[in-house]
Design brief:
The chain is α/β, with parallel strands linked by helices and 161 residues long. Helices cover 45% and strands 17% of the residues. The chain has helices at 10-20, 35-45, 58-68, 83-92, 106-114, 122-125, 128-133, 147-157, and strands at residues 2-6, 27-32, 49-53, 74-78, 96-99, 119-120.
Length: 161
């Protein structure tokens, strides 16, 4: 898997690169520190997955990348589980949203996203039913989520296995 890592903290980028490349299937093809770099590097490198921090104008960069390359697989990584960011990430078509503190889930999430799945950390999944009830409805069907998958998401969000 060709991976592009974008985070405004250079230490986070370097650490993620070191940790993730312990998997022989992962090759970090580039790192960057801003949304502007994310767009430029994505255009040039065409990674299989883009792992990007959401706070440093990541949402705007993700939106631009997905407008140009709707097949792009973006996994947002953040220290915040802010509802507004979650809704925006879902709306723009991100394949996942993870909290940085759950670093052990990053590698499995990357493999899942590469294979076409969507991945959301447990902190996010527990919020989905409430977010789905909000007046600002997310169109899961437009994102290819079947009614059965939506049922499963709701059950997992309620704590069921």
């Amino acid at each position: 898997m060709k991976l592009l890592i974008i985070d405004d903290d250079a230490l986070v980028c370097a650490s993620l690169k070191t940790i993730l490349e312990t998997d022989p299937q992962v090759k970090v093809v580039g790192t960057g520190g801003s949304g502007r770099e994310a767009v430029s590097l994505y255009r040039r490198l065409r990674p299989d997955v883009l792992l990007m921090d959401i706070r440093m104008d990541g949402l705007e960069a993700g939106e631009l990348i997905l407008r140009e390359a709707p097949e792009a697989k973006i996994l947002f990584l953040t220290t915040f589980s802010d509802d507004e960011y979650i809704i925006k990430a879902l709306k723009l078509g991100a394949k996942g949203y993870l909290i940085k503190q759950n670093f052990e889930s990053i590698l499995p999430a990357l493999h899942a996203v590469e294979s076409g799945q969507s991945v959301f950390g447990s902190e996010i999944v527990t919020k989905l039913p409430e977010l789905m009830q909000s007046g600002d409805k997310f169109d899961f069907a437009a994102r290819g989520v079947s009614p059965r998958e939506l049922d499963i998401i709701s059950l997992v969000a309620k704590g069921l296995s």
